[in-house]
Specification:
Immunoglobulin-like; 4-stranded antiparallel beta sheet; mainly beta; 3-stranded mixed beta sheet; 9 strands; 71 residues; 0% helix; 54% strand
Amino acid sequence: MEYLLVRYDRRRTVYVNGKKAGFTNRSLRINAGRHTVDLGEPDNYTPQRKQIDIAGTTPQAPRELDFVRNE
């Protein structure tokens, strides 16, 4: 299991490979490998999605991704 922390300025659902995986600003557990991460609709954030390779994380040192709300 790998650990992912997706940051955003408010609570949003996090989608990994098109499936709900949890919420922003909380550590998520996902399988190692290549994944596409986004925050779903409305798509008022940048970037629209991120493709990541994840491996070698720990609960104390998750992979971190940042999304920014569009004004």
